[in-house]
């Protein structure tokens, strides 16, 4: 049996998931790779004076998409946290949506919807 007193609890990490951790879990479930970055492919951050660090985003088109809307105080959209086209246009008409930290699912039974925008009106 494990017994923890208040002194030992204070040194334990509070959470294994950081602020963007739930986003990593979502990308793991949708793409098979956990990443906090939603852009397409690999983006190198840095300059020639410092080593550019790779940020690995979504490497392939996902079967299920991901849409994100974060509420900001100034009303501006943070482009660095917006999903790339590989998450916006999935193979199936199913999207996991995150709106201010609340998750839901959008779907359509018409698979033609992703191939032809005229299918919206049928």
UniProtKB/TrEMBL annotation:
Protease among keywords: yes
Pfam families, per the entry: MINDY-3_4_CD
EC number assigned by the record: 3.4.19.12
Catalytic reaction(s) noted: Thiol-dependent hydrolysis of ester, thioester, amide, peptide and isopeptide bonds formed by the C-terminal Gly of ubiquitin (a 76-residue protein attached to proteins as an intracellular targeting signal)
GO BP annotations listed: protein K48-linked deubiquitination; proteolysis
A GO MF term: K48-linked deubiquitinase activity
Top-level taxon in the UniProt lineage: Eukaryota
Coiled coil, from the record: none
UniProt entry keywords in alphabetical sequence: Hydrolase, Protease, Thiol protease, Ubl conjugation pathway
Domain Deubiquitinating enzyme MINDY-3/4 conserved: 2-122
Function noted in UniProt: Hydrolase that can remove 'Lys-48'-linked conjugated ubiquitin from proteins.
Family: Belongs to the MINDY deubiquitinase family. FAM188 subfamily.
PANTHER family with a match to the protein in the record: UBIQUITIN CARBOXYL-TERMINAL HYDROLASE MINDY-4-RELATED
Protein name: Ubiquitin carboxyl-terminal hydrolase MINDY
Organism expressing this protein natively: Timema cristinae (Walking stick)
Lineage: Eukaryota, Metazoa, Ecdysozoa, Arthropoda, Hexapoda
């Amino acid at each position: 049996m494990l017994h923890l007193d208040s002194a030992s609890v204070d040194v334990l990490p509070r959470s294994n998931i950081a602020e963007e951790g739930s986003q990593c879990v979502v990308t793991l479930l949708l793409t098979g790779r956990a990443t906090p970055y939603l852009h397409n492919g690999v983006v190198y951050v840095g300059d020639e004076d410092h080593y550019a660090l790779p940020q690995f985003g979504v490497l392939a088109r996902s079967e299920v998409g991901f849409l994100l809307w974060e509420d900001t105080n100034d009303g501006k959209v943070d482009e660095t946290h917006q999903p790339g086209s590989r998450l916006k246009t999935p193979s199936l008409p199913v999207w996991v949506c995150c709106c201010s930290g609340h998750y839901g699912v959008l779907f359509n039974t018409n698979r033609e919807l992703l191939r032809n925008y005229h299918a919206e009106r049928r």
